[in-house]
Amino acid sequence: MPDNYLSDTSDAKTVQDSASKRLTVTFEDVGIQVSGEGENFASTCLSVVTGIFQFGRRKSSKRQILEGITGQVSPGEMLLVVGRPGSGCTSLLKVLSNHRSEFDEVQGLVQYGNVGQDTAKEFRHQLVMNTEDDLHFPCLKVSETMSFATSAKVPKTRPQHLTTNEYVDQTSTEILESLGIGHTKNTIVGNEYVRGVSGGERKRVSVAEVMSTQAPVQCWDNSTRGLDASNALDFARVLRKQTDEQQRTIIATLYQAGNGIYDQFDKVLVLADGREIYYGPSAEAKQYFENMGFKCPPGANIADFLTSVTVDTEREIIPGYEETVPQTAHDFEQRYKASETFRRMKLLAKSRTQESLAAEVDGLRIANSGEKSRTVAALSRTTSPYLVSFFQQVWICAIRQFQILWGDRFSNGLQLASSLVMALVTGSLMYNLPDDSTSIFRKPGALFYPILLWCLNKMAETAASFEGRSILTRHKRLAFTRPGAYALACVLTDIPFVILMFSLFNLIYYFMVGYQYDAGKFFTNWFVYLVTTLCFTSLYRTIGAWCKNFGLASQISGWITMAMMVYAGYLIPTTKMHPWFRWIAYINPASYSFSAVMASKMGNLELSCVEPRFVPFESGYDDDRFRSCTVIGSSGDQIDGASYLSLQYSIAHTEVWRNVGIIVSSPLQHAASSLVAHPLHHRAQPHHPPSWDPIQLRLHESSSNVH
Q1: Contacts of 143 (CB under 8 A, 6+ apart)
Q2: Cα(110)–Cα(115) distance, integer angstroms
Q3: Closest C-alpha among 689, 671, 674, 456 to residue 547
Q4: Residue 126: CB partners within 8 Å, gap ≥ 6?
Q5: Is residue 68 within 8 Å of 342, Cβ to Cβ?
Q6: What's the CA gap between 238 and 58, in Å, rounded?
Q7: 10 Å Cβ neighbour count for 666?
Q8: How far apart are CA 509 and CA 512, in angstroms?
Q9: Pairing between β-strand 614-615 and β-strand 634-635 as defined by DSSP bridges
Q10: CB under 8 Å to 315, separation ≥6 — which residues?
Q11: Residue 487: how many other CB atoms lie within 10 Å
Q12: Which residues form the ABC transporter domain (predicted)?
């Protein structure tokens, strides 16, 4: 695995900046409490209703998953955290990387340099964590994924005076080459459903994203999962070289780490049932437990030996020590706190002066301000963790969205094909409607149908808004882009695709139905339906942005869809709506859209009245003096479109562009709401399943899901 990323790009300025980005992580008596529910509940009709009245009154027990964890990791040091699954390794890494939102309570002291966790939020982009899961957009190529990451981390002063594009290309290539996946640049990342790079290569793409942040504090959660032994060792060596040359502070938890990987770390912290049973030099850990009475088999992995000492079925006890070795995690903790290693590590942590720790924070702040672009420095708050401006974030997010659309072109092609088929099928059902009374009820239906079609079609945006939520949360934590920038980029990239898809439908449907061959009316019709489609797209995406789970979002979108279609003015004319619910029509974009297209198409239309709308009719009643048309708004044998709209639907034919203006404002309002919602909901939150419905189906699951 090449190491050129760590050496070839480093000129004098880069080395100086790297040296200034140093940070010591100190933690003392850290504990974590989470909600103690051991079961989840499936929602029922009763739970939805009763939950409204009992919101905020639910009480749950707490349980301690970490307790009394103490240690310190200085720049240039690597700490390995080991423990059995469920011992709290991942939770500890989340706290040390200052990601606390999913825990109910975090106890103890965690300092970064000489500042606490609240002050450290201003440089949260310098405290990064690579989680165990590989979260990527599956249709993006590896090179596109890395280009996005490095584009969001372009510093103001670049090594070797590279341009932005040169820096992005060179940095991306060198990181990928250093991880041995340079050959995958033109392969899509993929996932469990989309074929792409292998699982091990996908894991290294996740690692590459974190390495692009150049953060001084890096936490790695089981980042060797999916890698073979050789690549796992190469990854550990890359971390070691990065730590030595750039004075990084590395904290990692690795399951089944071989001795070659173990030897790369300076310190090791062993957890058992959330308690610290050893923290000290990695070279002394084996001897510490052997002195306690445990036997390490020849050739065994030291990391596996350290985690096995608390398991009765795995540990080997030296004969004669059976009665003296600790039996529980609490016993191990007490034995460690009484050891010389504990006293020595405590004195070593106290030896760091407050002046040296404060100098680290000052140097980091200076480096942060030097990395930010001039636009960010001028317009953003000084504590902003982002290196590029909001508009640059929107730009790189928009580029990525277009790349996602192109990467998923098969699905998008199916959408275009389905739009074509729907236009042909529905257009044939309403083919060439005549301009007489026989189509007086079919014409409004033909005008209402596209509204109904695109409303139902865009309901899928609710589900789509959840697909990339975990990815956006990861990118927010890495301080790549703001969630609001992604939301705005989605709105901008939606427009050309929606225009293409809708125009294909409308061009066929319009002329098959037989609307007037008038350019003004055609483009008015096209514009109203287009903006309405964009409105529905942004509406359902906003619903997804505001909801924390898909179940709630799907219920809300279903209710809103039903209300919009029923109160659009077609099924129930406005004058016949119940007074209690008429207000729905006034806030309903579908109502304004239907009114606009009706006024445009039928406002100045003159329809001839034909049988059977004449009363009486049949042979012998051909004299218009002795029969009349039964259609509302008719006069003699003619039906005035404006009168018909006014009397039947309460639509004024002069209000076309007023309604268009209201429709245009709707997607803008939804987009603004989405911009507000994304930053609020793209963060991990503690999950509290409802426990107040006695009829709920209990789905018993293990409550020990914290690793």
Answers
A1: 172, 176, 185, 186
A2: 9
A3: 674
A4: 21, 23, 213, 215, 216, 217, 364, 368, 385
A5: no
A6: 48
A7: 22
A8: 5
A9: unpaired
A10: 294, 308, 309
A11: 27
A12: 47-298
- Structural domain boundaries in the chain: 4-32+62-292+334-350, 390-680
**Cis before 496? omega within 30:** no
Please give the helix or strand (H or E) that residue 634 lies within, else none. strand 634-635
Beta-ladder partners of 699: 40
Whether 685 has a pLDDT exceeding 90, the answer reads: no
> Edge-to-edge, what's the strand order for the sheet holding 275-281?
105-112, 25-35, 62-73, 275-281, 267-272, 78-83, 249-253, 217-221, 127-130
Indicate the pairing of strand 606-608 with strand 275-281: unpaired
| DSSP SS3 for 448 | helix
**Token pair in block for residue 316:** 């080997």
Residue with tokens 């780490």: 257
Residue 248 tokens, joined: 């990084």
pLDDT in tens, 612-633: 766 766 666 666 666 677 777 7
Residue 66 has which token pair? 């970490």
Torsion angle defined by CA atoms of residues 403, 406, 408 and 413, in that order, rounded to the nearest 10 degrees:
150
As a whole number of angstroms, the distance between CA 692 and CA 706 comes to: 24
Q: Which residues, 6 or more positions from 134, have their beta carbon under 8 angstroms from its beta carbon?
A: 191, 199, 202, 203, 205, 206, 226
In the sheet that holds 638-640, the strands lie side by side as: 606-608, 638-640, 634-635
How far apart, in whole angstroms, are the C-alpha atoms of residue 153 and residue 175? 14
Q: How far is CA 640 from CA 605, 610, 617, 637, in A?
A: 7, 14, 21, 10
Measured CA to CA, the distance from residue 301 to residue 602 in angstroms comes to: 81
Q: Pick the closest to residue 558 from 678, 422, 463 (CA basis).
A: 463
83 phi and psi angles, rounded to 5 deg: 175, 165
How far is 270 from 280, CA to CA, in rounded Å? 9
Residue 522's region, left for phi above 0, alpha for psi from -120 to 50, else beta, is: alpha
Q: How far apart are CA 392 and CA 164, in angstroms?
A: 12
Inter-CA distances, 78 with 128, 217, 269, 359, 579, Å: 15, 10, 11, 21, 69
Give which of 609, 607, 596, 539 is closest to 570, Cα–Cα: 596
Q: Report helix, strand or coil for 208.
A: helix
Say if residues 546 and 530 touch (Cβ distance below 8 Å).
Answer: no
Question: What is the C-alpha to C-alpha distance for residues 118 and 103, in angstroms, rounded to an integer?
Answer: 16
Other beta carbons within 10 angstroms of residue 57's beta carbon come to: 7
* Positive or negative: CA dihedral 494, 496, 500, 502: positive
Longest Cα pair distance anywhere in the chain, in angstroms?
Answer: 121
Q: What is the pLDDT of residues 375-429, one digit of tens each?
A: 554 455 566 778 888 899 999 999 999 999 998 889 889 999 999 999 999 999 9
Task: Name the CATH architecture for the domain at 4-32+62-292+334-350.
Answer: 3-Layer(aba) Sandwich (3.40)
CA 78 from chain center: how many Å?
30
d(CA 159, CA 12): 8
Q: How would you class 410 by CB atoms within 10 Å of its CB: exposed for 0-12, middle for 13-18, buried for 19 or more?
A: exposed
Beta pairing, strands 267-272 & 78-83: parallel
Of the candidates 398, 698, 455, 476, which has an alpha carbon nearest to the alpha carbon of residue 589?
Answer: 455
Segment 311-354, tens digit of pLDDT: 888 888 888 888 888 888 899 999 999 999 999 999 988 888 88
Which residues sit opposite 270 in a β-bridge? 82, 278
Mean pLDDT calculated for residue range 353-359: 87
